[in-house]
Structure formats: structure tokens, C-alpha cells
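Methods — Computational structure assignment.
A single polypeptide chain was analysed. Its primary sequence is given first, followed by the predicted tertiary structure written as C-alpha cells.
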Amino acid sequence: MGKQKISSQIRPELLAEVGLLAAAEGRQLHSVLDEALTEWVAKKRDEAPEIIDRAQFSREQRRKLYEELAHWANLSRL
């Protein structure tokens, strides 16, 4: 599966610490973030699987609407 580029914000001190730890392990920041998010999702899925199921159902049922909203949101930035 390919990767998708994202943009986010993080506290500078946390980013610095993550960067140091990643470098100490010879890893890239994106690898550490991918691992952390994968573990977070697995934990949440175990804690409340019905929430994930409802979110996936909503996304599938309203996919066209979400795509149109994203399209219009992108146009409004032009």
C-alpha cells in the first residue's frame, strides 16, 4: 500500500524528543509516526470496536457526500 502525505502540528519539545529517539534507532520520523498511529488505532479498536464499525459504516454510506465536501473545501482554498 502506498503512503499518503499529511500535514499536522506538534509541540516543538515533543517533536525534538521523537526526532532524537528516532535517530538513535536509525529510523525516519515517518516510520515512528506510522508505528505510533498503528498502535493507537489498535488500542482504540480493542477498547471500543463499535466506534470503529460505526465510523466505517458512516464513511461507506456517505462516501459520495464526503468526497464532494472535500472537493468544495479544496476549491475554497484557491
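Note: The chain has four helices and no strands.
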